[in-house]
Amino acid sequence: MSGTYLGMPAFPQAAKAATRDTRLRANLRHATHTIRDKRARAVGELDDWAVLREAGKRIKDRTLRHLDTYLLQLEEHVTAAGGTVHWAADAAEANRIVADLVQATGETEVVKVKSMATQEIGLNEALAAEGITAYETDLAELIVQLGDDLPSHILVPAIHRNRGEIRDIFAEKMARWGRPAPEGLTDRPADLAEAARLHLREKFLRAKVGVSGANFMIAETGTLVVVESEGNGRMCLTLPETLISVVGIEKVLPTWQDLEVFLQLLPRSSTAERMNPYTTMWTGTSEGDGPRDFHLVLLDNGRTDTLADEVGRQVLRCIRCSACLNVCPVYERAGGHAYGSPYPGPIGAVLTPQLRGTTSAVDASLPFASSLCGACYEVCPVAIDIPEVLVHLREQVAGQPGHRAERAAMQAATWLFEHPAALAAAERAASATRALHPRRLPLGPAKAWTETRDLPQLPAESFRSWWQHHHTEPPTPPEPTS
Amino acid sequence: MRVALFATCVNDAVLPRAAIATVRLLERLGVRVDFPEQQSCCGQPQFNTGYRHLTEPLVRRMERVFDGYDHVVTPSGSCAAMVRDNYPRIGAKAQAEGRGDELARAAQAVTPRLLELTEFLVDVLGVTDVGAYFPHKVTYHPSCHGLRMLGLGTRPLGLLRAVKGLELAELPGAEECCGFGGTFAVKNPDVSAAMGADKIANARSTGAEVLCGADNSCLLHLQGMLRRQNSGRQDAPLRAVHLAEILAATETTPWSPA
Ligand code: SF4
Asked: Are residues A285 and A414 in the same domain?
């Protein structure tokens, strides 16, 4: 895996390799099952979880309905508090704005708080092209960056790595980026954390520019909110002189009171904690405290188009908790890289095709990367009906070129189901020749089925035929029970 | 009470035993069942693969065929969920596309009367002990549509617990999907097979002889894997059996494997 999503194969091909990688499967199984059980306990503690979830859903829906109003309110209040607001229609524009802002400071390094939005736009690569080095400071992001790897989980980007692999990456790669790993580094979690701490401390103390995203933005005051567990975020948000936050437009909330709901929903769904260890909130700039310069880059990058889709827009409620990944049986076996974007798992399968469209092979395959089991919908703290959106997107993909054979087969099936007499005849013919039917087939969907599964042996007669020939009315219809 | 059976296309053409068992079970419980022969398929394969428009004639057919019945009973959780969850959506989308409310009304007419078998038994007939006899060790896989979309809850296990002679073994990871997922099974065969293999390993770990489910599409996939695995295995074979077959079995008309 090298650090790019370009030219990713379609999901089934990428997943094929992952299902055979026993170490990856074991890492993922262990990690997702541990966190899913913990989440269930954390959520189970609250009697009013269902009500909170409904509130979260409704607050987001109401905000999205009036998104323009709240964004303008936000801009007004951020500006009044000494910040500068920039509007970016797409990834290229956002990257350009950030690069220009960094260059204006004369710096060539930035420290970063873990941020999905900056991964989505490929900010680190764009900055590197301008001679600016971005240092990831979240532990798991650091592992991914040092390993020249790609994240495979929203919350735990290096979930596909185990302790031994992390030790090796630190020992080999830290020196190239800064302070080397201590001699004789072991794979004990405390040692690994200490190595990361020493390596990162140097960067925190030196950096003049910080780059972040945000979990929430409060329109009524212009306040940004970042929740995290490691304290690296607090460092990046308070120590540098300049802070640049790149945030998707859907992250706005009208009021502080709304935030109350999400500060309960997010940590329990995400890390299975009652409360996350660090919550950093800032409003513009403050004299003698924190960054002197604050820039907010509001990112669209496909969100307005998504908002226009009546079924698809619900994905904009997402608070990136990753609960849906942790319960997803497909994610658990395919791994995060197969999804070809920084958004893996069920949310990626419905978000990426809306943000990027469905023209590339991987994006067109994402809506089909699900058995529609519904486990994601069940745990989603803002009740995004992911299976509903998947099917909705499948319709869009099925309408694209390249589905002639499938469409013809589906049309033939509907025709047959519309003509029960023909259906009965087909059933009779199939049953009559059943002794000749093979259990394995060499081509197409039948091959995909029979590689691991026998085809069913057809019955001697269909139910329809049994009903006509063998079913006899019960002699005296007795009174129904109950 | 006029009751119709919706057999489903898979049960009709491929796995008729579940539908036959449903008829026998309901008649044993004193319910007169009709099988309107103009019925076919609920449209789930087309809908879930992205061909919503091709399901529309089938929505109308379901409404026509089952008009006048108080209850339409189906031994398939996923087909019941298709009708109850997705028919209203198909109607609403047609309306949003400016095609009037004809489909929405057809959907509305059939949706509330369609019940999955265990719902009909427990909620309408009010029985959990159906007088069945099945002297085997059984583990139960609650397929996703029954579990999460219909919310069947304890109904299937309650029915199984009341079966005479039946030893129920708890299935580890019961709530996890078996990997069938309709066309998912062929569009993503590797992940589907990996999920199925885990489901079967869990079922085997219980020592059960029978892996029971209330959805034959899932059982088709699992039985296909089992048959492939069973050839060449030394230990006792495990087989997938529909819940209706277990509930239909009695001491006088016992279940038989083939
Ligand atoms: S879709 Fe729901 S469960 Fe998944 S990351 Fe977003 S908020 Fe969390």
From this structure: no
Q: Where in chain B is the domain with CATH 3.40.50?
A: 137-248
Min distance B147 CA to chain A CA atoms (Å) = 9
Shared domain for A64 and A192, answered yes or no, is yes
Is the domain spanning B137-248 CATH 3.40.50? The answer is yes
Each residue's pLDDT tens digit, A195-207: 999 999 999 999 9
- Note the Cα B193 to chain centre separation in Å: 20
One domain for residues A8 and A132: yes
What the block records as the tokens of A101 is: 């802002």
**Residue A477: which pLDDT band, with cuts at 50, 70 and 90?**
low
Contacts of A333 in chain B (CB under 8 A): 191, 194-195
Burial of A189 (0-12, 13-18, 19+ CB in 10 A): exposed
Contact (CB, 8 A) for A10 and A361: yes
Instruction: Name residues 187-246 of chain B within 8 A of A (Cβ).
Output: 187-197, 220-221, 223-225, 227-228
Q: What phi and psi values does residue A119 have, to the nearest 5 degrees?
A: -70, -40
Whole-Å CA distances, A419 to A35, A151, A257, A423, B39: 50, 51, 58, 6, 9
* Ramachandran category for residue B43: left, alpha or beta (phi over 0 → left; psi -120 to 50 → alpha): left
The answer to whether residue A427 neighbours chain B at the CB level (below 8 Å) is: yes
Whole-number Å distance between alpha carbons of A403 and B46:
13
Tell me the two tokens of residue A364: 């067109």
Closest CA to A86 of A238, A268, A247: A247
Write down the pLDDT at residue A2.
Answer: 46
Distance to chain A for B135, nearest Cα, Å = 25
Q: What is the DSSP letter of B122?
A: I
- Residue given tokens 């220009």 in the structure block: A100
User: Given A372, A374, A413, which is nearest B48 (Cβ)?
Assistant: A372
**DSSP line for A27-87:** HHHHHHHHHHHHHHHHHHT-TTHHHHHHHHHHHHHHHHHTHHHHHHHHHHHHHHTT-EEEE
Closest CA to A474 of B28, B248, B35, B70: B28
Helix, strand, or coil here: B5? strand
Selecting from B30, B47, B177 the residue whose C-beta is nearest the C-beta of A480 gives B30
Q: How many domains, in total, are found in chain A? A: 2
Q: Which residue has the tokens 């296990």?
A: B157
The verdict on A278 and A427 lying in the same domain is: no
Q: Is B181 on the interface with A (CB under 8 A)?
A: yes
Q: Which residues contact B142 (CB under 8 A, 6 or more apart)?
A: B152, B156, B174, B175, B213, B214
What residues make up the domain containing A415?
408-438
Of ligand 1's listed atoms, the one at least distance from the Cα of A270 is 8
Tell me: ipTM over 0.90. Answer: yes
Q: CA dist A281 to A56, A135, A166, A225, A245, Å?
A: 20, 22, 32, 5, 12
Q: Does A314 map to a domain? A: no
A8 is written with which tokens? Answer: 């990713």
**Ligand 1 first shell, C-beta below 6 A:** A 269, 318-324, 347, 379-382, 384
- In this complex, do A330 and B125 lie within 8 Å of one another by their Cβ atoms? no
Alpha-carbon gap: B4 to the closest alpha carbon of chain A (Å): 13
Task: Quickly state the pLDDT bin for A228 (edges 50, 70, 90).
Answer: very high
The 10s digit of each residue's pLDDT in B58-68 is: 999 999 999 99
Which are the contacts of B169, defined by CB distance < 8 A and separation ≥ 6? B137, B138, B139, B206, B207, B208
What pTM was computed for the model?
0.94
For B175-231, what is each residue's pLDDT tens digit?
A: 999 999 998 999 999 999 999 999 999 999 999 999 999 999 999 999 999 988 876
- Of A280, A304, A328, which residue sits at a domain end? A304
Q: What is the CATH number of the domain that holds A241?
A: 3.40.50.10420
CA distance A200 to A430: 68
